[in-house]
Design brief:
single chain; 260 residues; alpha+beta; NADH Oxidase; 11 helices
Length: 260
């Protein structure tokens, strides 16, 4: 997959992996991931951490068959009670996860299918911080075969296993005419956001194009009850930005994307 090494490629092949090989994460990959996380933490003012070899965190989910051999996770840790930090955590953690995807690692965002207290025991969480949620990481089951698959095979697998709300759902605040008239980069951005993971698989984010000034607003769907909505907002914004091209988001519910 050497010719497919961009983040948009990772967007097109990433899917939630629930079964992993019963082997430790490669030490070199773990070291590279930790370095990437450290760099992101400085940029995002977070305290995200890679935690390895802690299967007890997922023991209950493993007993029910929800996960197999899950033992490593990216812990999203940041300031307690800070809505913007939660959004940044989703945005920047997904940036790390997409890089890990290009390295052949599997991942799955977890909001409820883990032991949060046990997970926090293995993290550095100060009195002013909290553990938002986590992302399982590791070599997917049948890792050798997974690595041998072509980009096209992996993309096809995602399409056949990934459920998503419709394009109309993601642009519910726009009329049919406005959707058709929106620029192609907006449509690509929304299609990329449709492939974004969501901690509870609720996908609570809507996008709307504003022709008056060419900006895009990202808003949380008021009809979707999602305790991890702010994290999901950050994840969806990143996916949109990757496909839409050069531009920047303002943080917050209703924040605008300005394309350069």
């Amino acid at each position: 997959m050497a010719e497919h090494n961009q983040l948009i490629d990772a967007v097109n092949i990433r899917s939630a992996i629930r079964s992993y090989d019963d082997v430790p994460m490669d030490e070199n990959q773990a070291r590279q991931l930790s370095m990437s996380i450290d760099a992101v933490n400085m940029l995002a003012e977070l305290n995200m951490q890679l935690v390895c070899d802690q299967p007890t965190v997922f023991a209950q989910a493993a007993a029910s068959g929800h996960f197999v051999n899950a033992s490593n996770y990216l812990a999203l840790v940041g300031p307690a009670g800070d809505d913007e930090a939660k959004e940044r955590a989703g945005f920047y953690a997904e940036r790390v996860i997409l890089t890990a995807t290009l390295w052949g690692l599997g991942s799955c965002w977890v909001g409820g299918s883990w032991d949060r207290q046990e997970a926090a025991r293995h993290c550095r969480v100060t009195a002013s911080q909290e553990l938002y949620l986590g992302v399982i990481l590791g070599p997917p089951a049948g890792h050798a075969g997974h690595m041998a698959k072509s980009y096209e095979e992996l993309a096809s697998f995602q399409q056949s296993h990934r459920t998503s709300r419709s394009f109309e759902d993601f642009t519910a605040d726009m009329s049919t005419e406005d959707r058709q008239a929106a620029p192609e980069w907006f449509k690509k951005g929304v299609e990329s956001a449709m492939k974004a993971p969501s901690a509870l698989n609720l996908q609570p984010v809507r996008f709307s194009y504003r022709p008056a000034d060419g900006t895009v607003a990202a808003q949380l769907d008021p009809d979707v009850e999602d305790s991890f909505a702010l994290n999901d907002l950050g994840i969806a914004k990143l996916h949109f930005q990757i496909a839409a091209g050069t531009g920047t988001w303002a943080w917050g519910d209703g924040g605008l994307f300005i394309r350069k």
